[in-house]
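Incident review: delayed structure delivery

Summary: a single-chain prediction request sat in the queue longer than the usual turnaround. Root cause was a stuck worker, restarted by the on-call engineer. No data loss occurred. The affected request and its eventual output are reproduced below so the record is complete for anyone auditing the incident later.

Affected input:
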Amino acid sequence: MTNPWRGAEAWHFYLLAQRQLYANNFRAALKTAIRATEYELELGTVQVYSLLATAAYYCKHWKECSRAFVKLENIEDLPEEEKEKYESLAAKIFSKYDPKEFMIND
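Output delivered after worker restart:
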């Protein structure tokens, strides 16, 4: 282990992003969730990209939201049932919004 604080940093960003979401500070939550993706190995792919998809959705940053869903849908060891749920949710979101466009709430 080269950096013993890496796990603590990972959880810090994960919890901070959740706190920011609950405080309706969506822009900050998106930035923090993007930072948390650097800790995918420590936190888990599903947790990190679910958080990113949620923050991006509430921030109306459709491109980042789409990127998170693509990552979730392509997890190899995820059960098919869960993959289908992600695909269904993504289809509902992106039938309304173009994933190429984005708009950031203040």
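Verification: Helices lie at 6-22, 26-36, 40-43, 45-59, 62-73, 80-94.
Action items: add queue-age alerting; document worker restart procedure.
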